[in-house]
Amino acid sequence: MFIQFLGTSSGTPTKRRNVSGLALQESKGRDWYLIDCGEATQHQLLHTKLSLNTLKAIFITHVHGDHCYGLPGLLGSAGMTGRTAPLTIVAPEGIREWIEATQRFTAFHLSFELNFILPEALMFNPDDESPGMTFGQFDVAAAPLVHRVESYAYSFTENWVDGELDVNALRASDLPAGPDWGRLKSGEDVNYEGQIFRARDYVITDTRPRKVVVGGDNAEPAVLQYLCHNCHVLVHEATYAKDLAKQAAEYGHSYAGQVAAFAEQSRTPNLLLTHFSPRYQLNPNASCSVEILRDEARAVYDGEVFLAEDLQQYRLDKSGVLHVQ
């Protein structure tokens, strides 16, 4: 699967960074998902290979403008470029009210249906590890965060891993050899003469499903303890460095060392930091460089640390290793 950042700045854009937006693309095909949609996200998409016609769903973490102000323009452009397929938006209640008001007051007409879902419908249950809701190749769950407004993280877990057929089990079952065996191997459950044969019961694999967790603004990374179980990649804000820890807490944000310490405790192998305050410069020689955040994270975390950059793409391979493309 692929992760591509469309914006990595917090609050306001800079000359080199747009505000929050992230694309997550499925491992097979062209379908993708958008997590947050800050102002000018649709402009950033013009520099990628992603199409608004293959966008399957949008997930908004919270109502602050740097995470959602690009939504009306993106939806409008999707309609003007020929989209007709319905689009699901998972977002706090205020987002639906705002989009509907925009449609009323600006003659904003769409050629496709919008389906709104509240994050609560995807809420993760640690007692049964509920998958939340299925979207294409992913089971998506949500968890509340700690911020000045209602904010969420979303986990995306593959709902199928390729493997080999358990031929012995199939021969011992009531399902005769034939095309149905092929459907099971591709991950499709089969109904044969009223009996359901689950693909997961007849396919053997030695790898576990890949899982990515993407957080919104959050002052306490530890609230992600359960959602990050068996997570391969955590995408989390690191708005400040530790010397501004007090300011981070006051504004409902995290600092780099705080997030990294949680990633180490949760044994998450890959940490992707984003949502950097504009004060941190890309120039590694600047007195207030973003590299301060990398060094701070590495001091407490043994996994792989990445500092997100606009339009940078990452590939998470089947073994759970994250590669910069």
Any key phrases for this structure?
Metallo-beta-lactamase, Chain A; 2 domains; globular; alpha/beta; 26% strand; 9 helices; 325 residues; eight-stranded mixed beta sheet
How would you describe the overall organization of this protein?
The chain is of the alpha/beta class and 325 residues long. It folds into 2 domains: 2-161 and 207-323, Ribonuclease Z/Hydroxyacylglutathione hydrolase-like (Metallo-beta-lactamase, Chain A); 164-204, no CATH class. The chain contains 9 helices and 19 strands. The protein has helices at residues 41-45, 71-80, 93-105, 167-171, 179-185, 199-202, 245-250, 256-265, 291-298, and strands at 2-7, 21-25, 32-37, 55-59, 87-90, 114-117, 133-135, 138-144, 152-158, 164-165, 190-192, 195-197, 203-204, 211-215, 233-237, 270-274, 304-307, 313-316, 322-324. Helix 8 runs parallel beside helix 9 (291-298). The radius of gyration is 21 Å and the shape is globular. The relative contact order is 0.13. The mean pLDDT is 95.
